[in-house]
Amino acid sequence: MTMHDERARKELLITTIADLLDGIRHVAVGASSPIPAAGAMLLRARNAQASKPPVRISILGSSRHNFFTNGGVELFDCAAQGRVDAFFLGGGQIDGSGNINLVGTGDYPRMDVRWPGSFGSAYLYHLIPRVILFREEHSPRVLVPKVDFVSAAATTPEVKRRGGPHALLTNLALFDFDRERGGFRLRSVHPGYSADDVRDRTGFDYAVPEIVPPTPAPDRATVELIRGRILDELAECYPEFARAMAAAA
Questions:
Q1: pLDDT reported for residue 69
Q2: 128 and 79 in contact (C-beta within 8 Å)?
Q3: pLDDT at 2 over 70
Q4: How far apart are CA 99 and CA 95, in angstroms?
Q5: Does residue 200 sit in helix, strand or coil?
Protein backbone atom coordinates (compact mmCIF):
# COMPACT_ATOMS: atom_id res chain seq x y z
CA MET A 1 0.00 0.00 0.00
CA THR A 2 1.40 3.39 -1.01
CA MET A 3 1.49 6.43 1.25
CA HIS A 4 -1.36 7.96 -0.76
CA ASP A 5 -3.46 4.78 -0.44
CA GLU A 6 -2.89 4.84 3.31
CA ARG A 7 -3.98 8.48 3.44
CA ALA A 8 -7.16 7.67 1.48
CA ARG A 9 -7.90 4.76 3.82
CA LYS A 10 -7.62 6.99 6.88
CA GLU A 11 -9.77 9.68 5.28
CA LEU A 12 -12.44 7.06 4.61
CA LEU A 13 -12.37 5.93 8.26
CA ILE A 14 -12.51 9.52 9.52
CA THR A 15 -15.49 10.27 7.28
CA THR A 16 -17.30 7.08 8.29
CA ILE A 17 -16.87 7.94 11.96
CA ALA A 18 -18.29 11.42 11.39
CA ASP A 19 -21.31 9.83 9.67
CA LEU A 20 -21.79 7.41 12.60
CA LEU A 21 -21.72 10.32 15.05
CA ASP A 22 -24.31 12.39 13.22
CA GLY A 23 -26.95 13.81 15.57
CA ILE A 24 -24.98 13.62 18.82
CA ARG A 25 -24.31 16.56 21.16
CA HIS A 26 -21.22 15.44 23.09
CA VAL A 27 -18.62 12.88 22.05
CA ALA A 28 -15.72 11.80 24.25
CA VAL A 29 -12.52 10.33 22.81
CA GLY A 30 -9.95 8.39 24.81
CA ALA A 31 -6.19 8.65 24.61
CA SER A 32 -4.20 7.49 21.56
CA SER A 33 -7.19 7.71 19.21
CA PRO A 34 -6.30 10.08 16.35
CA ILE A 35 -8.78 8.70 13.80
CA PRO A 36 -11.81 8.80 16.15
CA ALA A 37 -10.73 12.29 17.25
CA ALA A 38 -10.51 13.44 13.63
CA GLY A 39 -13.95 11.96 12.93
CA ALA A 40 -15.43 13.90 15.85
CA MET A 41 -13.75 17.08 14.65
CA LEU A 42 -15.12 16.52 11.16
CA LEU A 43 -18.67 16.25 12.51
CA ARG A 44 -18.15 19.46 14.50
CA ALA A 45 -16.87 21.28 11.42
CA ARG A 46 -19.73 20.01 9.26
CA ASN A 47 -22.31 21.14 11.81
CA ALA A 48 -20.71 24.57 12.01
CA GLN A 49 -20.76 24.95 8.23
CA ALA A 50 -24.41 23.85 8.01
CA SER A 51 -25.50 26.00 11.00
CA LYS A 52 -26.55 22.86 12.88
CA PRO A 53 -26.40 22.50 16.69
CA PRO A 54 -22.81 22.62 17.95
CA VAL A 55 -20.96 19.45 18.87
CA ARG A 56 -18.92 19.31 22.07
CA ILE A 57 -15.77 17.16 21.90
CA SER A 58 -13.80 15.92 24.90
CA ILE A 59 -10.45 14.42 23.85
CA LEU A 60 -8.55 13.08 26.86
CA GLY A 61 -5.03 14.45 26.84
CA SER A 62 -5.93 17.55 24.82
CA SER A 63 -5.88 21.07 26.26
CA ARG A 64 -7.80 22.75 23.41
CA HIS A 65 -10.44 20.09 22.76
CA ASN A 66 -11.37 19.06 26.27
CA PHE A 67 -13.32 20.90 28.97
CA PHE A 68 -12.45 18.29 31.63
CA THR A 69 -9.77 19.30 34.13
CA ASN A 70 -9.44 15.98 35.94
CA GLY A 71 -9.34 13.50 33.05
CA GLY A 72 -11.15 10.21 33.44
CA VAL A 73 -12.77 11.08 36.77
CA GLU A 74 -14.88 13.82 35.20
CA LEU A 75 -15.57 11.70 32.11
CA PHE A 76 -17.03 8.95 34.30
CA ASP A 77 -19.13 11.43 36.24
CA CYS A 78 -20.39 13.08 33.04
CA ALA A 79 -21.29 9.66 31.56
CA ALA A 80 -23.21 8.71 34.72
CA GLN A 81 -25.27 11.89 34.38
CA GLY A 82 -26.19 10.99 30.79
CA ARG A 83 -24.17 13.88 29.36
CA VAL A 84 -21.96 11.85 26.98
CA ASP A 85 -23.69 10.66 23.83
CA ALA A 86 -20.89 8.77 22.10
CA PHE A 87 -17.56 7.12 22.88
CA PHE A 88 -15.08 4.75 21.24
CA LEU A 89 -13.84 1.40 22.50
CA GLY A 90 -11.50 -1.15 21.00
CA GLY A 91 -9.82 -4.28 22.25
CA GLY A 92 -7.19 -6.89 21.67
CA GLN A 93 -10.19 -9.14 21.02
CA ILE A 94 -13.78 -8.34 19.97
CA ASP A 95 -16.30 -11.15 19.67
CA GLY A 96 -19.50 -11.66 17.71
CA SER A 97 -21.62 -10.63 20.69
CA GLY A 98 -19.84 -7.29 20.93
CA ASN A 99 -17.84 -8.13 24.08
CA ILE A 100 -14.32 -6.71 24.24
CA ASN A 101 -11.11 -7.94 25.84
CA LEU A 102 -8.46 -5.46 27.00
CA VAL A 103 -6.75 -7.76 29.51
CA GLY A 104 -4.99 -10.47 27.47
CA THR A 105 -5.21 -13.93 25.95
CA GLY A 106 -5.12 -17.29 27.70
CA ASP A 107 -6.51 -18.43 31.03
CA TYR A 108 -6.78 -15.62 33.58
CA PRO A 109 -4.75 -14.80 35.67
CA ARG A 110 -1.85 -16.72 34.11
CA MET A 111 -2.27 -15.25 30.63
CA ASP A 112 -0.12 -15.83 27.56
CA VAL A 113 -0.32 -12.18 26.47
CA ARG A 114 -1.12 -9.18 28.69
CA TRP A 115 -2.65 -5.90 27.47
CA PRO A 116 -3.02 -2.57 29.33
CA GLY A 117 -6.22 -3.53 31.18
CA SER A 118 -9.92 -2.74 31.24
CA PHE A 119 -9.73 0.71 32.88
CA GLY A 120 -13.31 2.08 32.81
CA SER A 121 -14.46 0.26 29.68
CA ALA A 122 -17.21 -1.79 31.39
CA TYR A 123 -18.58 1.32 33.09
CA LEU A 124 -18.65 3.48 29.95
CA TYR A 125 -19.98 0.63 27.78
CA HIS A 126 -22.90 0.34 30.17
CA LEU A 127 -23.76 4.05 30.24
CA ILE A 128 -23.01 5.69 26.89
CA PRO A 129 -25.75 5.15 24.27
CA ARG A 130 -23.65 5.24 21.10
CA VAL A 131 -20.42 3.30 21.59
CA ILE A 132 -18.48 2.76 18.37
CA LEU A 133 -16.09 -0.18 18.43
CA PHE A 134 -13.03 0.80 16.40
CA ARG A 135 -10.10 -1.43 15.53
CA GLU A 136 -8.05 -0.99 12.38
CA GLU A 137 -6.79 -4.57 12.27
CA HIS A 138 -9.44 -6.88 10.82
CA SER A 139 -8.31 -10.47 11.37
CA PRO A 140 -9.42 -13.70 13.07
CA ARG A 141 -6.85 -12.92 15.76
CA VAL A 142 -8.82 -9.81 16.77
CA LEU A 143 -12.39 -10.63 15.72
CA VAL A 144 -12.93 -13.88 17.60
CA PRO A 145 -15.90 -16.18 18.29
CA LYS A 146 -15.58 -15.57 22.04
CA VAL A 147 -13.19 -13.31 23.94
CA ASP A 148 -10.80 -14.95 26.40
CA PHE A 149 -11.67 -12.35 29.04
CA VAL A 150 -14.67 -10.03 29.13
CA SER A 151 -13.38 -6.55 29.93
CA ALA A 152 -16.72 -5.01 28.95
CA ALA A 153 -19.93 -6.85 28.09
CA ALA A 154 -21.98 -5.59 25.15
CA THR A 155 -25.32 -6.63 26.62
CA THR A 156 -26.61 -7.41 30.10
CA PRO A 157 -30.14 -8.85 29.76
CA GLU A 158 -30.59 -8.98 33.52
CA VAL A 159 -29.66 -5.31 34.03
CA LYS A 160 -31.32 -2.32 32.39
CA ARG A 161 -28.79 -0.09 30.64
CA ARG A 162 -28.76 2.80 28.23
CA GLY A 163 -25.30 2.06 26.85
CA GLY A 164 -23.95 -0.48 24.42
CA PRO A 165 -22.43 -1.03 20.99
CA HIS A 166 -23.71 0.96 18.05
CA ALA A 167 -21.32 -0.15 15.30
CA LEU A 168 -17.98 -1.83 14.60
CA LEU A 169 -15.57 -0.16 12.19
CA THR A 170 -12.37 -1.79 10.91
CA ASN A 171 -9.97 -1.24 8.04
CA LEU A 172 -12.11 -3.59 5.89
CA ALA A 173 -15.74 -2.97 6.74
CA LEU A 174 -18.50 -1.39 8.77
CA PHE A 175 -20.93 -3.45 10.89
CA ASP A 176 -24.10 -2.41 12.68
CA PHE A 177 -24.95 -4.00 16.02
CA ASP A 178 -28.43 -5.47 16.50
CA ARG A 179 -29.14 -5.23 20.23
CA GLU A 180 -32.24 -7.43 20.05
CA ARG A 181 -30.35 -10.23 18.29
CA GLY A 182 -27.14 -9.54 20.17
CA GLY A 183 -24.88 -9.66 17.13
CA PHE A 184 -23.42 -7.78 14.18
CA ARG A 185 -24.77 -7.19 10.68
CA LEU A 186 -22.46 -6.20 7.85
CA ARG A 187 -23.44 -2.76 6.57
CA SER A 188 -20.75 -2.02 3.99
CA VAL A 189 -17.33 -3.07 2.71
CA HIS A 190 -14.57 -0.54 2.10
CA PRO A 191 -13.35 0.06 -1.47
CA GLY A 192 -10.75 -2.47 -2.58
CA TYR A 193 -12.29 -5.34 -0.60
CA SER A 194 -15.21 -7.72 -1.05
CA ALA A 195 -17.75 -9.37 1.22
CA ASP A 196 -15.76 -12.60 0.81
CA ASP A 197 -12.60 -10.85 2.05
CA VAL A 198 -14.50 -9.78 5.16
CA ARG A 199 -15.86 -13.28 5.74
CA ASP A 200 -12.41 -14.85 5.36
CA ARG A 201 -10.86 -12.49 7.91
CA THR A 202 -13.61 -12.52 10.54
CA GLY A 203 -13.55 -15.11 13.30
CA PHE A 204 -17.19 -14.71 14.36
CA ASP A 205 -20.46 -15.15 12.51
CA TYR A 206 -22.63 -12.18 11.52
CA ALA A 207 -25.67 -11.34 9.40
CA VAL A 208 -25.19 -10.26 5.79
CA PRO A 209 -27.65 -8.45 3.48
CA GLU A 210 -28.31 -9.84 0.02
CA ILE A 211 -26.38 -6.97 -1.54
CA VAL A 212 -23.46 -5.52 0.40
CA PRO A 213 -22.78 -1.91 -0.67
CA PRO A 214 -19.38 -0.23 -0.63
CA THR A 215 -18.63 2.18 2.19
CA PRO A 216 -19.16 5.69 0.76
CA ALA A 217 -15.92 7.50 0.02
CA PRO A 218 -15.58 11.13 1.15
CA ASP A 219 -16.47 13.76 -1.44
CA ARG A 220 -14.06 16.49 -2.51
CA ALA A 221 -15.38 19.02 0.01
CA THR A 222 -14.93 16.54 2.88
CA VAL A 223 -11.39 15.64 1.78
CA GLU A 224 -10.47 19.34 1.64
CA LEU A 225 -11.96 19.85 5.10
CA ILE A 226 -9.95 16.92 6.52
CA ARG A 227 -6.70 18.05 4.90
CA GLY A 228 -7.21 21.62 6.06
CA ARG A 229 -9.15 22.49 9.20
CA ILE A 230 -9.23 18.99 10.72
CA LEU A 231 -5.49 18.32 10.44
CA ASP A 232 -4.79 21.80 11.84
CA GLU A 233 -6.99 21.07 14.88
CA LEU A 234 -5.63 17.53 15.26
CA ALA A 235 -2.03 18.72 15.35
CA GLU A 236 -2.49 20.03 18.90
CA CYS A 237 -2.97 16.57 20.41
CA TYR A 238 -1.67 14.26 17.64
CA PRO A 239 1.17 16.14 15.93
CA GLU A 240 2.90 13.10 14.40
CA PHE A 241 -0.34 11.72 12.94
CA ALA A 242 -1.30 15.12 11.50
CA ARG A 243 2.21 15.62 10.09
CA ALA A 244 2.19 12.23 8.37
CA MET A 245 -1.26 12.84 6.88
CA ALA A 246 -0.21 16.28 5.63
CA ALA A 247 2.98 14.90 4.09
CA ALA A 248 0.99 12.24 2.22
CA ALA A 249 -1.34 14.90 0.82
A1: 77
A2: yes
A3: no
A4: 6
A5: helix
